[in-house]
Amino acid sequence: VIIDGKKIANDIQAEIRNTILLFSGRKPCLAVILVGNHLASEIYVKRKTQACESVGILVIIKRMPSTIQINDLLAEITALNEDPSVDGILVQLPLPAHINPMPIIHAIQPDKDIDGFHPLNVGKMLIGETGGFIPCTPLGIQFLLSRSSIEMTGKHVVILGRSNIVGKPLAALLMQNTPDGNATVTVAHRHSTNLKELCLLADILIVAIGQPKFITANMVRDGAIIIDVGINKIDNPTQIQGYQIVGDVDFINVEPKCSYITPVPGGVGPMTIAMLLRNTLISYQNRLQLNKT
Ligand code: GUN
User: What is the pTM of this model?
Assistant: First the structure.
């Protein structure tokens, strides 16, 4: 089965759109800070903006030059923290090399941190406390699996990659004592030995390392489930644009061996965006209940 992330994401977006229609008064609002002109970030922010607007979430984009100083960026975050009409604050990563992302992530008010990157939200997820925000890509992968009726309890999930955005939070999420968790999780990374043998042990192999077609057919057990988080641009002169987007998995050769696989594009990517909308809606609902607006 090729898991249709685009369709599942569209279904979730429709649910979010219908929920937002139930509210009168101010609309949910996401503020996006985009520093510099990193090409991939420009594309991601455009997609996020289009998706927000299609469900009725307002978007404020704050563009800043790559030469910005950290204090100016922190001042912008403080203003958004204090703005009662803003429900979510997203600082698109990566930031320019001279800006350490850690103090930036710390500066975002945890109840507006719809990316789920603030240490308070990361900690809540790790200890299994509800009410925090869960990072969009891990949450999107959990939704993809559950909406595809894939049972997780007792499965061996092997995650390749240990980033703060995907690998680490995903491991925490899938090992939790929850109906969509309860998996046995192995996290592998660039220093792991016997990578191929580890991959062959996976019931579910989730790959987030940013290397085109890294996972080949000989690394995959017959009947495994493959989730490909990679988004890589490779030259392809046969395409009109001269390039092609591929995942971290050699899809053509791996697909015949597995029971389920996500394509790139059209797999995890649209789910990440759907979860951003979901987190923003949750923040809006929380804020209305707290009567902050
Ligand atoms: N860069 C790549 N993925 C993400 C994400 O989920 N959130 C933010 N803010 N930046 C990213």
Answer: 0.97
